[in-house]
Amino acid sequence: MDEMQMEMEAQAQAHVLLFPWPQQGHINPMLHLASVLLDAGLHVTFLHTDHNLRHRFARPHHPTRLRLLSIPDGLPDDHPRAVGGLIELLDSMRTAGSAAYRALLLTESSRSRPDSLDDAPPPVTCVVVDGVMPFAITVAEEIGVPALAFRTESAFAFLAYLSVPRLLELGENPVPSDEQVRGVPGMEGLLRRRDLPRVVPTKQDDVDAEEADPVPVLLTIADTAAHCRNSRALILNTAASMEGPAIARIAPHMRDVFAVGPLHARVATNTIALEKHEDDDDYGCKAWLDGQDDRSVVYVNLGSLTVLSSEQLAEFLHGLVAAGYAFLFVLRPDMVASSSAVLQEAVEAAGERALVVEWVPRDVHYVLRHRAVGCFLMHGGWNSMLEAAVEGVPVVCWPFFADQPVVSRFVAAIWKTGLDMKDVCDRAVVERMVREAMESPEIRASAQAMARQLRLDVAAGGSSSSELQRLVGFINELSAVHV
């Protein structure tokens, strides 16, 4: 058998199990990875939690060739699984979820190989697990199945996570301060203490109140990052053109690193749909956007976990109204308590210039690429940042927690594709920054230049495309040895 035949045989037998952390911002990029691995000819199984598969996702909303399995997460079905319950979800996944994952992986990896007439997939030969779940790496390797880690934050943020022990040693905790930090290699003179990753924040106007000690949570986050070195390789949803220096700093800590993003830019919009919501009603978004002038709309979406006080919502809405532009505001039902009065007031003031919806359609990218959208006011989540970057849309970042403060700093200080509004929720600031993002030719030029480069990165011969080919070869090699 020649080398080409051996490679084809390995690819035919390679079967990757993908296991994301069960939150939307982690599931979506893992689904994009599933799609590109399927396109590369690999067998792929996607592991949901039972709760997500029942309540949030359904087979028609996945690539048709994607095999779905699920395990319990150990929480009651009515548990909110929102930002306030993330620690409970983490603990439950480490116990009940880990046991169920072990049992499933033992079965999937030891199954007999199908004959040529059988439609069943071959046994699982490799897993790609979300790097925030160290147990998933450990369990797979104990069973004898090679494990790769996939991290869904930016490379710069992951480097900051790796640096948490050093940051704490230097007393450089994340607080609203402009004091520069020394504990993140390569980012001296850039990151301030206010730019460091954070745990779930308390109310911003209550900084003097007694707070829970964030150090244990930060150390847990750092441990998950460090544990990725126990995997066979680290996969990052980023491009070298955006984060080359951080990738280079991370590489010595890992066995291998693959920068294959932005993954969503490789997936055709009609190939994969990510979110199930009733009858896929778009709440009139497209029709409303079609009726607006070019680059006249501010798109506001603060992600799937951000929560606001009614006072903060009032500042956002009044600032948007004062800016004078039309705005499309995605306001989740669980985002704000007692928001109806201030919402009604602001929408009445804006009139036809405002559309407030609970959700945007599955194909969220059509909103950002719509000719009417002029800027994106968002939370600094990495998925949202990549979506805006690929479409060349200027952004205003109001980070909430986790890696978002790091991203917002790079948006304003390094990439210059937008503005950083962290630690401030004031209508005058919202008004000023929205106007600047909508009107600045320098910001728009930087955003469009980044978009052009990212499209080159994911095209044939680009850096991310080449890294993806290398990743597929790496998985085939691991699978061949495992067989």
From TrEMBL:
It comes from the Eukaryota. It holds the Pfam family UDPGT. The keyword Transferase applies. Keywords: Transferase. One of its GO terms (molecular function) is quercetin 7-O-glucosyltransferase activity. CDD domains: GT1_Gtf-like. SUPFAM superfamilies: UDP-Glycosyltransferase/glycogen phosphorylase. This is Glycosyltransferase. It comes from Oryza barthii. Belongs to the UDP-glycosyltransferase family.
